Amino acid sequence: MQRLLIACYCALIALTAATGCDSETASIFDFGEFTVSASVPASGQSGVDPDASVELYFSEDADILDVERNFSLTGTSGKVEGSFSWTSRRAMRFTPRYQLARSRRYSVELPTTVRSQGGRSLSRGFLSDFFVGDYAANPGVAASTPAHVTGGNVIDPSALTELTFTFTRPMDSMKTQAAFSLSPYVSGTFSWSPDATILTYRLTATLDYGRTYSARIGSAAEDTGGNAMARDFLLVLVAGDDTTPPQVLGMNDNGTAAYWNTAESGIENSVGTSVSSIYVAFSEAMDKERVESAFSITPAVDGHITWPSDAMLCYHLDESLQAEQSYQITVDTGAEDIHSLHLQEPCSVIVRTTAATAKHVAIGEVRGSADGAMLPAAADYLFSGSAIPWPVMVPLYGNDSPNGMKYYFMIQFLRDGIPVAMDKTSLYGNYLVEKFSGDTTSPRVFDITWHDADTVAKVYVSGLLHKTLPDTSVLYRFTLSGGSGGIRDALGNTMADTFTFEFKEVQ
Predict the structure, then answer these.
(1) What are the CA-CA distances from residue 177 to residues 101, 185, 214, 328 (Å)?
(2) How far apart are CA 238 and CA 86, in angstroms?
(3) 204 and 274, same domain (yes or no)
């Protein structure tokens, strides 16, 4: 029986050879493998032209539709689209729709499910790859000046004049320059080494101190063979070693370290109306112009600014603070240090003139003396500030002279009914003596002296006229100015109203 089967098999083979049966019939008796016998480009090949097609050659006739359904050409951007053509059932060509990208690797794949025309599957899956371009490795930046440092290279911005980038091979200058960026932007010009491997960017402006800059060569940069960089090169530069923003250490009226509470604390700081200066202390040297623009007082108070040091501003008040008034003093984020670093948040304090220091000055007793004695007789008591006779009668003594007669007024100052020390300079420019009849002789304040711990002013008035007849006594008026620009005590409290009395020589 076995001999009969062998004989039949041999007869079939002979019959097939004699009758010229097709390959499908022949494949029944083919004990070889269905494989991809060759590919173009070859697996691992580099330097492939971007316009290249992919060709596959099979060991026997392939099922064309099955091959086209399962074929894939894949690059870094995904599957490549294209069209198929066949010179025979054993030779396929795939032509990409678009040019392949330089400096990219592509893979070709057919799975084992692909069948021959005779129905046999590939004996093993086909996988091949190739590299488009002249090099199998992408170009890149080998070195830079300043050097790349993780986290950023700290440099002196005043000394940096150029950036240089050394590449692994000659580069396309136009495409590489187009891929360069510097952020924040700083103007500059490009130049190249003769072998096109070193790019220099010469700065035509200075980097700003305290800022961080990013110099980037993007992956669109290409070498002279058209191969692109695989990834961006990023050079981070920190301009200057001062990266700490300034702070307001505090504010007060004396410039020492005991500062007022900030507005954020919700506490109002009690001050007197005598405050004449406001100090703002900073953690480091500041840009004075920027700080002055960022400083404000609300409600506004006229004043002018000086700088006791590069880290301290002093605002000198040209007018007194108002009684029982709250003021907000602010330095906003526009303030910068000398390296152009801003305050991270505004700083404010709130001050309020308190009742204890905001009561107005008043006039107490007024006494007079023809000889300037400080302990005049009771008859020389003229009046109190709350009960002023009209006119006040004063005795003038002495001979007429070119300066006329003289008289001394001792004026006592009170605050809340208690004698108060005065700002002695505030009287100057805030008094006036006027005459309403008589000759052309003019009265004037000849001198002012202070007594009783600066609570009493002795005002020496000269140029007064001695009466010649009882009905010819001259009437005079003496005025002390009140209000915000008038006289004030040592704490800065002012007199609410102008004080005036009129006097004549005793009849």
Answers:
(1) 20, 14, 15, 53
(2) 61
(3) no
Highest mean pLDDT among 258-272, 329-343, 468-482: 329-343
pLDDT digits (tens, 9 = 90+) for 150-171: 889 999 898 999 999 999 989 9
User: How far apart are the C-alpha atoms of 286 and 241, rounded to whole Å?
Assistant: 16
Regarding whether 336 and 269 lie in a shared domain, the answer is: yes
Quote the number of domains for the chain.
4
Neighbours of 130 (CB within 10 A): 24
pTM for the structure as a whole: 0.38
429-466 residue pLDDT tens: 899 999 887 666 788 898 999 999 999 999 998 888 77
Domain stop point among 239, 261, 284: 239
Using the 8-state DSSP alphabet, how is residue 31 labeled? -
Q: Quote the distance between the C-alpha of residue 410 and its chain's center.
A: 60
Give domain status of residue 426, yes or no.
yes
Range of the domain at 88: 19-132
pLDDT, the chain, mean? 86
CATH number for 43 = 2.60.40.3710
Residues 6+ apart with CB under 8 A from 435: 441, 442, 443, 465, 474, 475, 476
